[in-house]
Write a structure and sequence with these properties.
Structural class: alpha+beta
Helix content: 25-40%
Largest sheet: 10 strands, mixed
Number of helices: 13
CATH topology of the largest domain: Glycosyltransferase
CATH class of the largest domain: Mainly Alpha
Shape: globular
Number of domains: 2
Strand content: 15-25%
CATH architecture of the largest domain: Alpha/alpha barrel
């Protein structure tokens, strides 16, 4: 494995190889129409859901040389109106009654988030491969997916211009019916309660940003993106409708309905840290959301504050008696949320909190070398018997990949800003973890040889960085609050720098071109 982190601290050094091993158990290979299709399966069903896969490749891109085939397959099976399937499988799902190994496609009608996840999967795959011709071929599918979302009457609310959905728990796939349906309701019908979920809208905001970047990068090849709404106008509208002053309201109702027994206005749902990382929340909003999670972790005494939703809904009101408070999406503790929350913390001045999350996760998975999609607040892992899901794998790739993402791009701080590490931001935050020496290398596994690596050391005289790769680099280096920066020297030449305070954290910002290697010294005044 050419991607590694060496710090001398188990909680950081072991995370990449552990998650790689988890992901190796999560690969699903299918032969469909004579073509090998490979993707990452959901931890709770033997299928490749585009939502899980698009998040899981945030880690898999360092280990897997076939990221294209599943994206190509979802594009090839796109409906004429632009709709994307939720998942594909060739494996029997509901044994023993289902035995046929047919190829099966499913779109859950209440889902409104599938299209942006398809765009995100295409984007991350392009970043790893750098294949411009490939992404050019996908652009019409990506645009068609946005066209569907912004025009279909089941997806767009004409009054606000925002994306709507049935009343689900955050981004999940079954809707509240007020007991008008005998079990989990996946369909849209005359009893659907409509509303606006901030998670859908932050996802489409990020998808629009991706399309804007691709449009700018590929415009000389004739790409022109069709605008349904201006990107920043959309962001402003989401914040106007969904922000409640402390965090994003779980569900802004379009159909009036009251659910007795829960303070809906106070429900903090899992897409809040994702809203930070997708860029729809500004810094002040990010700080408010992070503080809300920290406060609730202390208040509820959960083993971790990675809530799917808090407070949960009353037991069983979504149609299944297993959906009690603290179970699954109804208040379960998700490592996926923890990874997103850690990433948000690293970027918004709560670096020690991000480190705490990574350490807690390492401790969790080290007990039995297992990781689950969700846990009860007391730390009991999910199981088939206590969930509506048909499976409960102990190698969850969804949450573990989010943790790797927070480690590599948050704590180690190597972020690809375009493709194949041609433009990067390097933000080592090791000081927040008490680490004074580190070796880091991240390399895409697609065979392009694209990588960035560095050796880092910190002492009272300053910071040394020995960087390898080939990139236009922005540096954003965490130093101590009391450190006074005197100069920044890159390859024996002084460079301009700035000092930035993010909350109580001090960063040194500068930029430069890395040509194979750059030796950097940040000197302090003493």
């Amino acid at each position: 494995m050419n991607t590694f982190i060496n710090t001398g601290r188990r909680e950081f050094d072991e995370l990449l190889p552990r998650v790689k091993a988890f992901l190796e158990h999560d690969v699903l290979e299918m032969n469909i129409d004579g073509v090998k299709v490979r993707g990452y399966r959901s931890p709770d069903s033997k299928a490749v859901w585009i939502r899980d896969h698009s998040d899981m490749i945030r880690a898999a891109k360092y280990f897997d040389s076939d990221l294209k085939s599943i994206v190509d397959h979802f594009a090839a099976t796109q409906a004429a109106n632009g709709r994307i399937f939720d998942y594909v499988t060739t494996y029997p799902e509901k044994l023993p009654c289902e035995k046929e190994n047919w190829t099966k496609y499913v779109r859950v009608p209440v889902e409104a988030d599938v299209e942006y996840r398809f765009i995100k999967a295409a984007w991350l795959t392009w970043q790893a491969t750098g294949d411009d011709e490939w992404i050019l071929g996908l652009i019409p599918h990506m645009q068609k997916a946005l066209d569907y979302i912004f025009t279909h009457p089941h997806r767009i609310d004409p009054a606000t211009g925002l994306i709507k959905r049935a009343y689900t728990i955050d981004t999940w796939d079954f809707a509240y019916t007020a007991e008008n349906h005998p079990w989990l309701q996946f369909q849209i019908d005359e009893n659907t309660f409509w509303g606006i979920s901030h998670g859908d809208n932050s996802g489409y905001y990020e998808a629009m940003l991706i399309m804007d970047i691709l449009n700018n990068y590929l415009k000389e090849k004739g790409l022109r993106r069709k605008d349904h709404v201006k990107t920043e106008e959309f962001r402003e509208k989401v914040n106007e409708v969904c922000w409640n002053g402390r965090f994003y309201t779980h569900f802004v109702k379009l159909t009036p309905v009251v659910i007795e027994g829960v303070d809906e206005d106070n429900q903090l749902s899992m897409s809040n840290p994702m809203a930070i990382n997708r860029g729809i929340a500004d810094h002040e909003q990010a700080v408010s959301i992070i503080n809300e999670y920290r406060m609730r972790e202390e208040k509820t005494h959960a083993f971790a504050g990675w809530f799917s939703i808090d407070p949960p809904f009353p037991d069983g009101i979504f149609g299944d008696e297993k959906l009690v408070a603290g179970a699954y999406i109804n208040g379960g503790i998700f490592p996926l949320v923890g990874g997103e929350l850690a990433m948000a913390a690293f970027n918004h001045g709560f670096e020690e909190y991000g480190v705490e999350i990574l350490r807690k996760y390492h401790q969790l998975i080290s007990k039995n070398n297992e990781t689950f999609l969700w846990y009860f607040p007391d730390g009991t892992p999910s199981s088939v018997e206590k969930s509506t899901s048909p499976d409960a794998m102990p190698t969850d790739g969804w949450g573990s990949s989010a943790m790797v993402w927070a480690l590599t791009e948050g704590l180690a701080g190597i972020e690809d800003r375009l493709r194949r590490f041609e433009k990067v931001r390097i933000s080592p935050r090791w000081l927040a973890a008490g680490v004074t020496r580190a070796q880091v290398r991240v390399e895409y596994a697609e065979g392009t040889g694209a990588f960035v690596g560095y050796e880092y050391s910190y002492n009272e005289q300053g910071v040394e960085l020995k960087v390898e790769g080939g990139a236009e680099a922005e540096f954003h280096v965490l130093v101590g609050k009391e450190d006074v920066v005197n100069e920044v020297i890159m390859n024996n030449v002084r460079v301009l720098f700035g000092v930035e305070m993010i909350e109580q954290s001090q960063y040194v910002n500068f930029s430069g071109r890395i040509r194979d290697r750059a030796d950097i010294r940040i000197n302090f005044k003493r």
